[in-house]
Amino acid sequence: MNWTRGKTIGRGSSATVYAATCHESGETIAVKSAEFHRSEFLQREAKILSSLNSPYVIGYRGCETTKEPFNNGEATTYYNLLMEYAPYGTLTDVAAKNGGLLDEARVVSYTRQILLGLEYIHNSKGIVHCDIKGSNVLVGENGEAKIADFGCAKVVKPEITELVRGTPAFMAPEVARGERQGKESDIWAVGCTVIEMVTGSPPWIGADSTDPVSVLYRVGYLGESPELPSSLTEQAKDFLGKCLRKEAKERWTATQLLNHPFLITKPNTEPELGTGLVTNSPTSVTDQMFWRSVEQEEDQEHPSWWECHEDERIRVLSWMGPTWDMDGEDWIMVRRNND
Ligand SMILES: Nc1ncnc2c1ncn2[C@@H]1O[C@H](COP(=O)(O)OP(=O)(O)OP(=O)(O)O)[C@@H](O)[C@H]1O
Q: Where does this polypeptide localize (predicted)?
């Protein structure tokens, strides 16, 4: 596919996302790019996304490498994941535009769509997302929620214990303890995302400590759950209770939750949305470490943070300082490598 790279629309910890125009169709697409030698996670994400097809999952448009000249004149090779463009940005962006939080009708509508996406990837594809949160759910052209950022996702293999992935504030007890990360852990994260949509903050903000290691300890070993917002209806609280059960096996599945009264008795409202956002995944510098996914430190020379002693983990987590800025680039041409 021939395309022209446009403005930066987002920066994550592992890649930069640009708007781009497809030459043949004129369609605006999103291109997530990383230098080739640092693109292992992006390549894995592309492989998973290419196997998915649902209105509630961001659409795959292809992947390719490009050679692009930089300031010093030398060409750098990039790996690019081409995706459907979501004009309204992430759920976190939409909430921010709405004063930080969303009303219950919108929360219901987005939650239902996230669960439809999860039902598809869990049941039809045997995939666990591992990093569900507001900033990893995009809002599509028609205002629908679409699960994105499959950089932490994996195919479920119950017999294999793999490294923990995801964002501490959204981690289920069994994930916080480093035991297993399955479909049920995504459901816990859905509960956390509902809290985020209702309160405008990730769970645990306002708790005694927002230090990620302390939160993981409280979730994993002290058996604590995030506080339920007092503004919620009893039905909503009951729904969250089904998502946030401490025992993974007792948590409801996506299919069961789709039939919970919280999701089936409310009318759908069409959200009023604005486009043109340029965002970074974390909402602010101060909460960035707390929000940040922990999938990419595997390629650092240090040991995996989870396998370390707690003191070591604190040190590893403190390495995750801000690495992003907000500069947008002008339109540039992209030269594609030969296929
Ligand atoms: N398809 C898309 N359409 C519109 N915006 C997008 C799209 N994909 C990503 N973005 C924007 O780019 C940002 C970063 O993307 P993404 O979360 O996929 O990157 P990442 O490097 O995996 O981030 P993270 O640090 O959360 O792992 C998103 O928060 C969003 O604002």
A: Nucleus
